[in-house]
Amino acid sequence: MKVEEREIPTVIAELYLCIQNVEYIRTHEPKNLKQALKIWNLMNK
CA-to-CA distance for 29 and 31, rounded, in angstroms? Predict the structure, then answer.
């Protein structure tokens, strides 16, 4: 997968790990994960 094609799949994988209660996630784009978690939490209220 090309570098420019990795952003969305990476955020999806990181979000999945958060939902599975993984204790630590190493990310290069914490802002993207934070936004994804915010949306996830709003959708699951």
Answer: 5
Task: Outline where 1-45 has alpha helix (H).
Answer: 7-19, 30-43
**Per-residue pLDDT tens for 14-26?**
999 999 999 999 9
| Residue type for position 34 | K
Sign of the alpha-carbon torsion through 19, 23, 26, 31: positive
Rounded to the nearest angstrom, the gap between the alpha carbon of residue 15 and the centroid of all alpha carbons in its chain is: 3
Instruction: End-to-end CA distance of the chain: give it in Å, rounded.
Output: 34
pTM of the predicted model, to two decimals?
0.85
